[in-house]
Amino acid sequence: MAEGSLDPAVAEVRRAVRATLPESGTVIVALSGGADSLALAAATAFEARSRGLDVVSVTVDHGLQEGSADAAARAAATAESLGIRAQVVRVDVESAGGPEAAARDARHAALRAAAAFENAPVLVGHTLDDQAETVLLGLVRGSGATSLQGMAPRREDEDGTVWLRPLLGVRRQTTRAACAASGLEFWDDPHNVDPRFTRVRVRERVLPVLETELGPGIAEALARTAEQLREDAEAFDEMIHETIEDIVEHAEAGISVSVAALAANPAALRNRIIRLVVGSEFGVSLTRIQTLEVARLVTDWSGQGPIDLPGCAARRTGGRIVFTAR
């Protein structure tokens, strides 16, 4: 059937997936059974056939609510009906960090394990609406430009896991329409409408109020903001990597940065250098307050002692800022 005769929602999701898929090998679809991931799975299965791609779905059963095992089994069965090799993984969710964060960590661990086993990227069904919610939450929390960049279309973790998000330009209503047009029955997770969760309140209450009071297009505007900030960040990162080669030296049990070079850079670049050096050397992220405290060793030096940071300490020694492991 020609794409022009397709339901518009199905065609839009397929186009988004087509632009993201690799040319060969295997891909993994993170399949919850909800409309977003099910539309993603169906489009991936269709587009994969012309490329000879092997498609594997991984449905993670967190066991946090009654009937979760049945929902996971239905999702896997639907995937198999689409020609996808389906897996269901049951995980134990720890309580540390709250149930939402713990479930996310357990889910990501299962998907990373599958990605490593299959040597394949993981496709995730985050939509434009998810992106808008992420940006708005980052703005409210004052998390800075990194948080406001939202989710990247492609991200590679330090362990080599590649995450692909083909649907970041697709609205949630489109994925639901695509499922309906394809006769795919999706599962509405009760947690997605539970007001105990901050993201749900943003989705169900805050964004609708903004649309009503400020006019339509709020979600698209937030997503555009994220894209623009990612472009800026990529440019900054390129500048930083070029700069770091000249101003960073390895030190005993750590790394050091030239005070003069840091002082010569504008504050935005100086702070990014500090965060990048600490993140790359010690694998930790600094808050803005911690970053500014380190920067004071450059801009407001009065003999202060070492600054304790996550996983390391920073001190000024002569003309250098030295970061050492704690």
UniProtKB/TrEMBL annotation:
| HAMAP family referenced in this protein's UniProt entry, alphabetically | tRNA_Ile_lys_synt
Keyword terms: ATP-binding, Coiled coil, Cytoplasm, Ligase, Nucleotide-binding, tRNA processing
The organism that produces this protein has a lineage beginning with: Bacteria, Bacillati, Actinomycetota, Actinomycetes, Micrococcales
User: What is the protein's species of origin?
Assistant: Microbacterium bovistercoris
Q: Which GO terms describe its biological process?
A: tRNA modification
**Enzyme Commission number, as recorded:** 6.3.4.19
Record comment regarding domains: The N-terminal region contains the highly conserved SGGXDS motif, predicted to be a P-loop motif involved in ATP binding.
The protein's name: tRNA(Ile)-lysidine synthase
**Family assignment?**
Belongs to the tRNA(Ile)-lysidine synthase family.
Q: Name one GO cellular component term.
A: cytoplasm
**Principal location listed in the UniProt entry:** cytoplasm
The chain's coiled-coil residues are 219-246
MF terms (GO), sorted A to Z: ATP binding; tRNA(Ile)-lysidine synthase activity
* UniProt keyword annotation of Cytoplasm present: yes
- Locate the tRNA(Ile)-lysidine/2-thiocytidine synthase N-terminal domain: which residues? 27-204
Task performed by this protein: Ligates lysine onto the cytidine present at position 34 of the AUA codon-specific tRNA(Ile) that contains the anticodon CAU, in an ATP-dependent manner. Cytidine is converted to lysidine, thus changing the amino acid specificity of the tRNA from methionine to isoleucine.
Q: Which domain of life is it from?
A: Bacteria
Sequence positions that bind ATP: S32, G33, G34, A35, D36, S37
**Reaction(s) catalysed (UniProt annotation):** cytidine(34) in tRNA(Ile2) + L-lysine + ATP = lysidine(34) in tRNA(Ile2) + AMP + diphosphate + H(+)
In this chain the tRNA(Ile)-lysidine synthase substrate-binding domain maps to 258-321
Annotated InterPro entries? Rossmann-like_a/b/a_fold, TilS/TtcA_N, tRNA_Ile_lys_synt, tRNA_Ile_lys_synt_N, tRNA_Ile_lys_synt_subst-bd
- Record localization: Cytoplasm
